[in-house]
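Schema walk-through. Below, the input block comes first and the output block second. Nothing else is stored per chain. Lengths vary across the set, and this one has 446 residues.
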Amino acid sequence: MGEGRFHDALKVTYHPLYPLLTSALSVFTGDVERAGFWVSMIFGSAAMVPLFFLARSIFGRPAAVVTALFYAVQPHTVELHADVMTEGTFAFFFFSSMWLCWRTIQEPSIERSILTGLAASAAYLTRAEGLLAVVLVTGWPVVFAIRNREGRPLRLSGVGLGMLAALILAFPFLAWVRSEMGTWKVSAKVSVTDAARAVGQGGLREEDLGEKEGKSRWSPRYAKLIQSLGRLTYIVTVPLMLLGLAGLGGHGWRGPLYYFSFPLGYLAGILNSLRSVPYMSYRYVVPVMNLLMVLAGLGFVVLARHLAKRWPEPKATRGALAAVAVMVLVMAVSVLRPHRAEEATFRVAGGWLVEHRRPGETFYTTTDKLAFLAGSGARGFPLALKDFQAEVVKSPAAYYVFMEKDLDDRRRSYVDWLHVTGRVGEPVVLAGVRPGAWSVTIYPAR
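--- output ---
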């Protein structure tokens, strides 16, 4: 994008806003990778502002303060938002669209409606999941307009103009996707198109997966989803979240219904995608848990009020505040020096490939970060083993690169096939360069 080769950039199939912002900021940082870090940190940190205002508007200031605190120190959130990842930028635009839409519902405004549409469209241009924001910030104002005659023309006009603004912002990308895919689609990204395909065929076919994954294609991914949801509560917030469920009744039904439709709709989308995408990462549910953390904020309010009634002395309130402070401290200790230790060996592997590859030689890798560090020539592994086999037979690569975690999942069958057919030689194993780092195994072609 910095060189103006937008078609080549979009063919990577990631949604364009995060790399576009990175490219723009690199003018000031002088380095694309450093710019990527700064974009993530700036937008990821700024996302706390709309999250706080939204929670305050619906659930009150005390719950909003606790929600914002947990967002600021939740270790996995900080880890992602301090890295060259799309999550921080996505969170900012996703939360902003939620807040702006709620303000528009409360006080109809053409200007705010247009901003809502732009924010939702920006979330979609960052990650495909942002399409949920576009749908909900369009649908909710219509629902409230139907139920409330007052200001109905203004509300519906705002919806129309907001939709138009969202479409104008997204149209260049949508037009490019159509030129590549031959039809109108929301994304050219393989995981998104596979998920859409699965809706029509009732899930991914067993022959599209490795044998091991095909025989147990349901339980591992859904188990990982449940594990990820639990992991992101960081355990210490669970009691407060349970108390928070009891505190929902004092806030009516409209605000909570609006608020929770976003994380629950997001979660429903993940569940549907897991029918076709044969892998699950905790990253997918980080926005869900960021939003559901408002239950911990409500739980704190319930606890504080209960203590105040039982022990009216100021000590009770200070005790409740101390309990939250301890929880925040427990999480904050983990993020004082945020880093993704498991990826530390990527730089070593990237340097090895730069040193050993000849001009024009390609290599397969499961991660785009290693592809960036190794320069041009990267190829992504196809979803299905049979597609990988067909590609390799037609156009072999010079190297096949696997992360440590890849050799424990369905891609183990890819390695087995390469060995059985005699297409690769002895592997080069680059051990983890620090505790917790994955090893990287590079198989050279024969």
